[in-house]
Amino acid sequence: MLKRTFFILFSIFLCLVAIFSPITASAYEVTGFDITAKAGMLVSMDTGEILYENNIDEKIYPASITKIMTTMLILESEKYNPEEKITLTKEALDLVLGTGSSVSHMKQGEEFTQLDLVHLVLMASYGDTTYLAAQYYGGSVENFVAMMNQKAAELGLTSTHYVNPVGLHDDEHYTTVRDIYKLTLYALKNETFKKVCETPRYTMAATNFSPARTLSTTNFLQDTTTNYYYQYAKGVKTGFTDEAGRCLVSTASYKGYNYMCILTGCPNDGRGHQFKESANLYRWAFNNFSFKEIANSNEPVCEMPVELSFETDFVPLYFKEPFVSVLPNEADDSTIVVETHLNSESTEAPIKKGDVLGKADVIYAEKIIGTVDLVAGEDVKASKILIAFEFIKEIFTSIYIKLLLGLVFVVIIIFVILCIRLNIGKFKKRKVKYIPYNRKEK
φ and ψ at 58, to 5 degrees? Predict the structure, then answer.
């Protein structure tokens, strides 16, 4: 009993130490440059941590960022064959007339490969070829848009709704920065999508109406001929309408660090805010943040009391997997708190190594930067004797047994009362005749 009490107190002490370790507050504030975007984020593609965010769940208009979804439906279609030819139709050309969308200047009846089409839609962002894709792969524009919304639902883009495949403005054509991030992560898993969006120049072979031509990306971060070129940037998509402002989804990689930047609603004043500010955010992240291992899976975090075992009175808990975070360079162990949340005050044997017995929140700058499962670090066998005692204890402490015992007690009391009353009645009925002694003699 003394041993059990000691280990319970010891485990509580360890958990309290983990919870109340000193912390120095530090916010991820962007300094040294301004961000004009109405909504945006910079997120680590390695850990999923957001280093910068602004209005990421507010409704925005995506403009040609829409074509990320359009391209994915092309690539995932059963009709898609990169080498097979497709023909530009009059219907596609008519649909884009008067919309203000950029056009390819190709002619009705011009033939090119479906891989060319992907470059025309995603990389060059032409509206006429995008409508052509919707007609060909969806059967009609309306059906293709329905497919877009269905795919959005499948991907969990709960704040996204499409009205057209191009990104032309419509009050009912909207999304959020968070949804754009989810969609882009999904799209980048497709090797063709990734290769196309990261290509700054693409040469189309000669067609039946035109000699070979070269397409250029609309993302100037990738274009060495512009003043906005940033050597570590890759892909993904630009967008613009008067209502949406200048938008850019891009990624950048440097020395093993990978980030995605999404900026929407930048001013349309010809200063390239979306490009400059994206590059500035990447430099800020690369210069000021680094990977830090908060905890590995080889050292116990805390302990949990164990019942029904003679082997031990506690089991050590470990992180299910090592926890690595992108944190400011100045962050150290003293600025990080691990707050444990056990599933219960104690657990019963048997326990298997790896059983999830709680969770741990990792906190930096008063923000939860991650949550990891806490698992048992070893097997713990149960004692059959203790299990039997526990079973008997549960029987006699259960509400049903208590009710039964109460009922038995009441029956006994009633029985006793009835017995007493019956005996008293018999006593009253009994008559004893008294004969005096002297009279009897006579």
Answer: -85, 145
Type of residue found at 153: A
Average pLDDT over residues 325-336: 86
The values of phi and psi at residue 273, to 5°, are: -55, -40
The C-alpha angle with vertex 127 and arms to 121 and 132, in degrees rounded to 5, equals: 75
| DSSP 8-state code for residue 312 | -
Give dist(CA 54, CA 59) in Å, integer: 12
The two three-digit tokens of residue 113, written as one number: 């490969």
Phi and psi at residue 276, in whole multiples of 5°? -60, -45
- Interval 14-30: pLDDT, tens: 333 333 333 222 337 89
Q: Are 193 and 72 in contact (CB under 8 A)?
A: yes
Q: Is the distance from CB of 256 to CB of 239 less than 8 angstroms?
A: no
The helix, strand and coil proportions of the chain, stated in percent and rounded to the nearest 5, come to 35, 25, 35
Question: b/e string for 332-366 if b means 16 or more Cβ within 10 A?
Answer: eeebbbbbbebeeebbebebeeebebbebbbbbbe
